[in-house]
Amino acid sequence: REQYELVGVPWRFGILLHGLPGTGKTSLAHVLASELGLRLSVIPLGDLESDEQLVSAFASIRRGTMVLLEDVDSAFAQRESEDAGGITFATFLNCIDGMLAPQAGHILLMTTNHVDRLDPALIRPGRIDLRIEVPALDRDAASDYVDRLFPHVPTRHDIVGEVLSEPNPTAAALVSRIMQQPWRRVDRRLN
């Protein structure tokens, strides 16, 4: 970061999280922001109707913010078409690291279910510095997850077994199933 600031170049770091739907990419983004002590700003690309809205969203980004852009593979109008509606690819790239990009420096986190559909210009080095494949759920990861977050749910390991026996088990399905259980959260501050 200091090297960038010394030469007057805005510091940015791009992360691409990719994997099957429901594997926990968005949850991982929230955890990363929390662990790094950053605010998380979600820009809902699918809800934006114009380049002006996109520019406005990026202009509001402050220092100390991690920016989350979900499902970038389906977010903007076709690169070749200027009249397709929605946001254009050129403006999107300019907002990420061009003339329209925030000058305060930030971490940009993008998610996709289809990394193979992304334009090479979007995921080139300098825009994406780190690629992380978020894998499908396995027994060890699921057990560790429920032990950390839901130690007060006595049936948590049974639920892990049930979810993993289904086709395409996901972290989202696991959390959904646990949240349906009758349990009472223990206030850990009292212990």
Helix content: 25-40%
Give the averaged pLDDT, no decimals. 82
For the biggest β-sheet, the strand order reads: 2-3-4-1-5
Largest sheet: 5 strands, parallel
User: What's the total number of strands?
Assistant: 5
What can be said about this structure in brief?
The chain has 191 residues and is an alpha/beta fold. The protein has seven helices and five strands; from the N terminus they run αβαβαβαββααα.
Protein described:
The protein is an alpha/beta fold and 191 residues long. It contains seven helices and five strands. It has helices at residues 2-6, 25-36, 51-59, 89-97, 139-149, 156-164, 171-179; strands at 12-18, 39-42, 65-69, 106-112, 130-133. It has a five-stranded parallel sheet with strand order 2-3-4-1-5, with helices on one face. α3 (51-59) links the parallel β2 and β3. α3 runs parallel beside α4 and α6 crosses α7. It is elongated, with a radius of gyration of 19 Å.
Notable features of this structure?
191 residues; alpha/beta; 7 helices; 5 strands; 34% helix; elongated
Give the topology, please.
Elements: H1 2-6, E1 12-18, H2 25-36, E2 39-42, H3 51-59, E3 65-69, H4 89-97, E4 106-112, E5 130-133, H5 139-149, H6 156-164, H7 171-179
Parallel strand pairs: 1-4, 1-5, 2-3, 3-4
Helix pairs in contact: 3-4, 5-6, 6-7
